[in-house]
Amino acid sequence: MDNILAARANEVKKETGALADVLQEIYQQLLPVKTGKVADYIPELSKANPDGFGICVVTADGQVFEVGDTAQRFTIQSASKPFVYGLALETWGREHVLARVGVEPTGDSFNAIVLDEESRRPYNPMVNAGAIAVTDMIPGNTSTERLHRLIDYLKGFTDSEDLFVDMPTFTSERTTGHRNRAVVHLMRGFGMVSERFEESLDLYFQQCSLLVSCRDLAVMAATLANSGVNPITHRRAAWSYTVRDVLSVMYTCGMYDSAGEWAFWVGLPAKSGVSGCIFAVAPGQAGIAIYSPRIDAHGNSVRGVRVCEELSRRYNLHLFADHDRPPLFTGS
Ligand code: GLU
After folding, report:
1. 281 has catalytic annotation
2. How large a percentage of the chain has pLDDT more than 70?
3. Where does the pLDDT of residue 160 fall: very low under 50, low under 70, confident under 90, or very high at 90 and above?
4. What confidence score (pLDDT) does residue 25 get?
5. Residue 117: is its pLDDT beyond 90?
6. 66 part of a folded domain
7. Does residue 70 belong to any structural domain of this protein?
8. I need a labelling partner for 84 at 20 to 30 A (CA). Which of 208, 217, 230, 263 fits?
9. Domain range holding 102?
10. Among protein residues, the one whose CA lies closest to atom 2 of ligand 1
């Protein structure tokens, strides 16, 4: 039996090449792609270098493969949402969280001002309304205490000691985030957020303004791929049942209003952010992260989507593919 598997592993390796070479090849292939546009609705984001491009894969057993600008920092934006959702679930439990935020995809854009008419909840925690309602659940006596709790939780998914808010982006979001302000008032009107909602909105802007690198994001994704245990630090960052809930919502709602197309073509839970980052999780196998700031009409990094489509195709990563094949990220 082992011999058959080993022979198949060699076949796959011959077909796909070693992962480091494959990443290099995909990187070179996509480097000339200049379609899409750097987000500018938050003025500070428009300062990003449009040509920046990094790809990092961290396997569930802690091997790191990277190419391009993987150490370059950018603000995490909506890629923070799954992790803060995890924190809310672990703090309050499913029932409490589900009473305030649903798990239904909307098909609307990330900043749509829509709530479920019947339940008055935001549809899911991956769109802004739901994410703000989730952030409102982060406990703490003061705003600083709440921010530290959030940062400490996210840090568990990284191997970096250095996770902090980019003040210019925070200020930029705060002064221009009129839609987010509108939606939080609407939710307050429906009793879906607490009386601290203004403070919570600031906390949401701070959460979106945390600086990470592509490598950080790949480690965070790999921690989800490894059922909540950080494969670099070997510490548990989240409970496996939380990871299950988070990945489920990422799968159906993580890629804005192209979540359906994504599920069809890539077939992995993922989340993107308007700064041009995407992370995807291949459960039990690896975390994948891409940084490339030019985004498409849905808000997803153009090159990021292409990288994931390519990796999913080459390594048969789609969750519903025929997986009667050997482990793929062998790394050598
Ligand atoms: N801070 C951004 C906003 O609230 C996050 C958007 C995103 O990355 O989807 O508009």
Report:
1. no
2. 92
3. very high
4. 97
5. no
6. yes
7. yes
8. 263
9. 15-315
10. 77
7-16, 18-27, 136-145, 235-244: range with lowest mean pLDDT: 7-16
Name the pTM for this structure. 0.93
The answer, yes or no, to whether any atom of ligand 1 lies below 6 A from the CB of 180, is: yes
Task: Supply the DSSP string of 134-191, one letter for each residue.
Answer: HHTT---SSHHHHHHHHHHHHHTTSS-S---B-HHHHHHHHHH-HHHHHHHHHHHHTT
* Residues comprising the chain, all counted: 332
Whether 33 is in a domain gets the answer yes
CATH code for the domain in which residue 197 is found? 3.40.710.10
77 lines ligand 1 (CB under 6 A): yes
What tens digit of pLDDT does each residue of 71-91 get? Answer: 999 999 999 999 999 999 999
Which residue has its alpha carbon closest to ligand 1 atom 10?
A: 111
Domain count, the chain: 1
Catalytic residue, candidates 274, 281, 302, 305:
274
* Mean pLDDT of all residues in 250-255: 96
Statement: residue 13 has pLDDT above 60: no
Please give the DSSP secondary-structure letter assigned to residue 326: -
Cα 279 from Cα 164, distance rounded (Å)? 19
Q: Establish whether residue 299 lines the binding site of ligand 1, counting it when its CB lies within 6 angstroms of any ligand atom.
A: yes
110, 165, 278: which to mutate for ligand 1, most atoms within 8 A of CB?
110
- Is residue 128 lining ligand 1, measured as CB closer than 6 Å? yes
The reply to whether 327 falls in a domain is no
